[in-house]
Structure formats: structure tokens, C-alpha cells
Design the sequence.
């Protein structure tokens, strides 16, 4: 079955390693976690959230899906999809139940969550349930997103919160909306980390150790992202010759 955006058949997507193959056993239900985000850059807050969702919600796999051209980021400086996808691949490569996909990065035009979920629903059979994982702040705003009713129909929502986070606003907005959202909240201590904080640290010449995997830090420095100050490494002999 071909999808509407020319991404190819379900078999093509699986063969390329973009999406996990689920739904083969019609006698059971599969639970697919979708970790959406800009991932600019990805950090341990994202990874811990996905791992906790995997455990708490008994997911079969969590797919990390870097946003292509997210509607809410229009007019803002966002790192290229290639770089964000590469960092996501590096960060998730050692976890057997994490998969990184180019599903949104390769799509043309502005990407909307409702469209993404609809495409995934076309790709996967009915015995695969979709769990869209995002921050509790986004959950509070999701009633205003494009075709919010379609989002409510297509996926369970998982909202990650920081310890002490006040859920009243999110609960009020969700319960007051005309849509039947199914929301689960997870308290994740590591959510005190943010991508903007990491970008600020890089531009200020500060370390990212223990905030994101070292492989991601290496990629940032190698590709000079976020205003990093390039370092020219010289040999001991070169150093001695210049003195």
C-alpha cells in the first residue's frame, strides 16, 4: 500500500529500517510509541522519557521521529533535518527497543502531527495501537493544534511532566475540549533538561557531558552546530615546532 506523500509501501519503509514491522500476529495487540520532537539537539530528557514510557505503558518499541518542518517552528532557526536525524540515530543506536526514523524529515512541506498519525495509521494494521509521547506543556496546547479531533481519534497521548508540575491547566483544557482525548501522564525527573539549554551551553563554550550522549556532543563539535567554537588539534611535533 503506497502512502499519500510518496514515502513508499509499508514493506519499503521497513526494509529501509525507517519503521519497525509490527502487527504480524493478528491474535495480539501491539503498542507503538512515537517520540515526536524537534530534537535540536536530542538529550537525556528525551531518552529517559521514552524509556519510562516503554516500561510503564508496556510498549513494544519507541520510534524517535525528528520533525521535518514543524508548523510551530516556522520563522525560527532550526538545525537541518539531516543533522537532527543523525544526532537522533547516534543517541538511540545502543537501545534495542528504540528506533530512529526519517519519516517526517523526508516529507515535503510543513509537517503536522495529525497528518503524521494518519499516515502511520494507514501503514500499520488495526492491531497496532499508537501512543504519541510528548511534553505535558504540549499536551496542554494540543487542543489548539491543527485537526486536534483527528489526533484524539488516532492515538493515545502520553504527557511527560517534571516533578511538581501542575497538571491542572492541562487537565482543564483537555477536559474542556470537545474531543475525546485519552491521556496518560508520566513524571520524568530528567525533564529539567531542555534543548535550548544545551544550545546555550554550546554557544557559551560549556560542556554537555551528562546532558546528552557523548556521541551527540561529538557530532555537534565535528559539524560546528549551535555556535560551537572549532578546535584545531595539532600534534606534539607541530606544537614543538611553533614554539
Sequence:
Amino acid at each position: 500500500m503506497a502512502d499519500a506523500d510518496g514515502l513508499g509501501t509499508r514493506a519499503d519503509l521497513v526494509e529501509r529500517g525507517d519503521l519497525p514491522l509490527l502487527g504480524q500476529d493478528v491474535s495480539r495487540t501491539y503498542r507503538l510509541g512515537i517520540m515526536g520532537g524537534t530534537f535540536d539537539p536530542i538529550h537525556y530528557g528525551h531518552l529517559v522519557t521514552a524509556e519510562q514510557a516503554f516500561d510503564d505503558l508496556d510498549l513494544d518499541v519507541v520510534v524517535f521521529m525528528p520533525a521535518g518542518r514543524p508548523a510551530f517552528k516556522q520563522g525560527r532557526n532550526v538545525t537541518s533535518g539531516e543533522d537532527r536525524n543523525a544526532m537522533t540515530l547516534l543517541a538511540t543506536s545502543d537501545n534495542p527497543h528504540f528506533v530512529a526514523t526519517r519519516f517526517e524529515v523526508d516529507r515535503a512541506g510543513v509537517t503536522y502531527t495529525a497528518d503524521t498519525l494518519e499516515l502511520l495509521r494507514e501503514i500499520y494494521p488495526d492491531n497496532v495501537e499508537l501512543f504519541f509521547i510528548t511534553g505535558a506543556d504540549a499536551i496542554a496546547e494540543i487542543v489548539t493544534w491543527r485537526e486536534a479531533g483527528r489526533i484524539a481519534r488516532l492515538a493515545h497521548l502520553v504527557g511527560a511532566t517534571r516533578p511538581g508540575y501542575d497538571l491542572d491547566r492541562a487537565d482543564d483544557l483537555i477536559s474542556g475540549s470537545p474531543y475525546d482525548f485519552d491521556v496518560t501522564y508520566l513524571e520524568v525527573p530528567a525533564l529539567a533538561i531542555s534543548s535550548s539549554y544545551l544550545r546555550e551551553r554550546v554557544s557559551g563554550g560549556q560542556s554537555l557531558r551528562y546532558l546528552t550522549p557523548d556521541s551527540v556532543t561529538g557530532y555537534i563539535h565535528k559539524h560546528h552546530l549551535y555556535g560551537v567554537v572549532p578546535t584545531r588539534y595539532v600534534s606534539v611535533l607541530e606544537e614543538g615546532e611553533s614554539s
Notes: The longest helix spans residues 44-56. The longest strand covers residues 30-37. The chain has a mean pLDDT of 87. DSSP finds ten helices and six strands in the chain.
